[in-house]
Amino acid sequence: MSPSKVSSLDFDKFYNIIDGEQRGSKNIHHGVNPSTGEDLWEVPIATEQDCNDAVAAAKKAFPAWRDTPIAKRKELLMKFAELFGQHTAEFTQLLCKESGKPQKIAGIEVGGVVGFIQYHCALDIPEEKFEDDEKIVYTEYTPLGVCGGIIPWNFPLILSIGKIAPALLTGNTIVVKPSPFTPYTGLKLVELAQQIFPPGVVQAVGGNNELGAQLTLHPDVAKISFTGSIATGKKVMEASAKTLKRVTLELGGNDASIILPDVDIKKVAPEVVMGAFQNSGQVCVATKRIYIHESIYQEFLQEMVNFTKSIKVGPPEDGDNLLGPVQNAMQYEKVKGFFADSKAKGYKFAVGEPEPQPTKGFFIQPTIIDNPPNDSRIVAEEPFGPIVPTQPWSDLDEVIARANDTNTGLGGCVWGKDVEKAMAVARRIEAGSVFVNSWEKPTPQAVFGGHKESGIGGEWGKTGLLAFMNARVIHCYKN
Known about the structure:
Elements: E1 4-5, E2 16-18, E3 21-23, E4 28-33, E5 38-44, H1 48-67, H2 70-85, H3 88-99, H4 103-121, E6 128-131, E7 135-143, E8 146-150, H5 158-169, E9 173-177, H6 184-193, E10 202-204, H7 209-217, E11 223-227, H8 230-240, E12 246-250, E13 255-259, H9 265-277, E14 287-293, H10 297-310, H11 329-344, E15 348-351, E16 367-370, H12 377-380, E17 387-393, H13 396-404, E18 408-409, E19 411-415, H14 419-426, E20 433-436, E21 451-452, E22 455-456, H15 461-464, E23 469-477
Parallel strand pairs: 8-9, 8-11, 9-10, 11-12, 13-14, 13-19, 14-17, 16-17, 19-20
Antiparallel strand pairs: 1-3, 2-3, 4-5, 6-7, 7-23, 12-22, 15-16, 18-21
Helix pairs in contact: 2-4, 3-4, 4-5, 7-8, 9-10
């Protein structure tokens, strides 16, 4: 297919976007609607040449974009937010189809795109100045150049704009690679952006893991921002080391929630359930382990069970569902493995079926495992699906040690009426984001990243801007 300029949006046709133009491919694949198991629209698989062309266009566009005043870059970003806001209904429907998210939940993600852009446009690039009798020292921050953004399938829109907005604000150009499981909203987001930004400033190339590897190895890509699994993150870092690329890695987690004995049980239990099962548990920073004080364990667990039984699971078009399906067949089978292991080991299912029932989509009812052992798979590993363990605790030091006994450190929660005590516990959790009296709700106003093997660096917030920049210090000596 010959390239064509981007003008109006067609939400039934999808292209790679290279140098401001739509580009197809001889090789195509299909996303799958997780609610039905049926193929969705054709999507072009970018070739190595497509990847090279995109990087070349980004490199060519970089000097002019870097030198564009930040006020003008903000103006264009805000125009993009306004333009995107005119298409929220189409993006919501598209997100429902590719992800299976209920309409209300998909609408929240779509609405977050504008919020992300607006927040970043309220930021300024930091600078510092130091002066003594001899000299003035200016610390300035300059853009890196061409950035590559590798996007996962669980939040394809918000995690795309979470990389695009700060990259463009700080004067970089960016090539986005959507997940092959959810390519549609990301490709369409970047296609829409061509109506606002100069060619080459923001591009998208869709494909498989090989394409991601090409981006990480490309000598003209200055930074890779990757969100995904720990195993793939290690491969990204290894490949990026060959050219000493800057990397930001936001990887998996096994977040603990600690429930202190003074909580309002009826109020807090449903909130803890939401933290575990939001987006059907397909959230890197979702609650994955729940530690409840022994004095309230049975009552709290029963309230969790009551709320879990009220959760409606189904396809987006059913209206009032809280949860949709697991997004893809590969993850569906992985999650079912946790069910099979828990059943085989004889663990107690407080709520949920020991075996997910066959459906035409990848649906699993939310499930709670009552007090499995510390070394059980459901406690030690991240399911990334709607199944969660609970355990009682009695000694605060011991439960904090249990919460921290993991190679991950992405997030965590502490719940308690005594906020000062809860805050003191939160400060002992080895994680990048800890939430007190709330389930995990990352916000663009604060840097987001993990400790240990949950990642390197962080993005979002004022601090996160620096992930897209190099420090340059000018030492000016006085005459």
